[in-house]
Specification:
Strands 2-1-3-4-5 form a 5-stranded parallel beta sheet, with helices on both faces. The chain folds into 2 domains: 131 residues, Response regulator (Rossmann fold), CATH 3.40.50; 58 residues, Orthogonal Bundle (Arc Repressor Mutant, subunit A). The chain is an alpha/beta fold and 207 residues long. 56% of the residues lie in helices and 12% in strands. The termini are far apart. α6 packs across α8, α6 crosses α9 and α7 packs across α8.
Length: 207
C-alpha cells in the first residue's frame, strides 16, 4: 500500500450502513477503516496519511457532535463529514461552525459523499503540507544563534543596518555578517520573504 494513499475512517453503529460505506469507498480505491463506536476509533492505530472521518451524528452514548469537540481537544485534526438520518438546520450549523467539512442527510447519493470525501482529503493534505512547512521553518529558526535572532527581529521590524548596529552595540560590518547568516540559514531570498517567515513564526510586530 502506498504510504500516501488517503485513508477514510467511518464511525457508524448501523452494520448495514457500515457495510454499504465500506463497499462504496473500497470501489474507488480508498483505504477504509470502519468502526462501530467512537471508543473503537480512539483505541485504533491510525495511519499518518491524509484522510477524513465520516461520522454518524446519532451514536449510542456520545453524540457525533460531542465527539467532534472531544477530537478537537485531543488534537485530532481530521476533517469530519457528518451523516445523519435526522439532520436539522440547528444541528448542521453547530457542526459546520465547529469546523465540519460537510453535513449530509441520509439518504444521499454515492457521488455526493465521494465528492465530499475527496474535498475533505484535499483539505487535510493542505493542512499537513502547511504543518510540515511550519515545522521546517521552526527548525531553521532554531538553528540561528541568539545574536542572529536579535538581528532578524530588528530586520523584520524595518531597522536599517546602522540602526541595528546602534541598538545592539555592534559595528555595521558585524551586523551585515549576522544579517547575511540569517538570510542564508532561513533560506530567505529577500527581506519581504524573511518578514513572511517571521509572521508565520509569530515574531513579526509593528515595533
Amino acid at each position: 500500500m502506498s504510504e500516501d494513499r488517503p485513508a477514510v475512517f467511518v464511525i457508524d453503529d448501523d452494520p448495514s450502513m457500515r457495510r454499504s460505506l465500506d463497499t462504496l469507498l473500497r470501489s474507488v480505491a480508498l483505504d477504509v477503516h470502519i468502526f462501530s463506536s467512537t471508543q473503537e476509533f480512539m483505541h485504533a492505530k491510525r495511519p499518518e496519511v491524509p484522510g477524513c472521518l465520516v461520522l454518524d451524528v446519532r451514536l449510542p452514548g456520545m453524540s457525533g457532535l460531542t465527539f467532534q469537540q472531544e477530537l478537537a481537544k485531543a488534537g485530532v485534526a481530521l476533517p469530519i463529514i457528518f451523516i445523519s438520518g435526522h439532520g436539522d438546520v440547528a444541528m448542521t450549523v453547530r457542526a459546520m461552525k465547529a469546523g465540519a467539512a460537510e453535513f449530509l442527510t441520509k439518504p444521499f447519493e454515492d457521488q455526493v459523499l465521494l465528492d465530499a470525501i475527496h474535498a475533505a482529503i484535499e483539505r487535510d493534505r493542505a493542512r499537513r503540507r502547511d504543518a510540515a512547512g511550519l515545522a521546517d521553518l521552526k527548525a531553521r529558526y532554531r538553528a540561528l544563534t541568539e545574536r542572529e535572532r536579535e538581528v532578524m527581529q530588528l530586520v523584520v521590524t524595518g531597522r536599517a543596518n546602522k540602526q541595528i548596529a546602534a541598538e545592539l552595540s555592534l559595528s555595521v560590518v558585524t551586523v551585515k555578517v549576522h544579517r547575511g547568516q540569517v538570510m542564508h540559514k532561513m533560506q530567505a531570498r529577500s527581506v519581504v520573504e524573511l518578514l513572511r517567515m517571521a509572521d508565520r513564526l509569530g515574531l513579526a510586530n509593528s515595533d
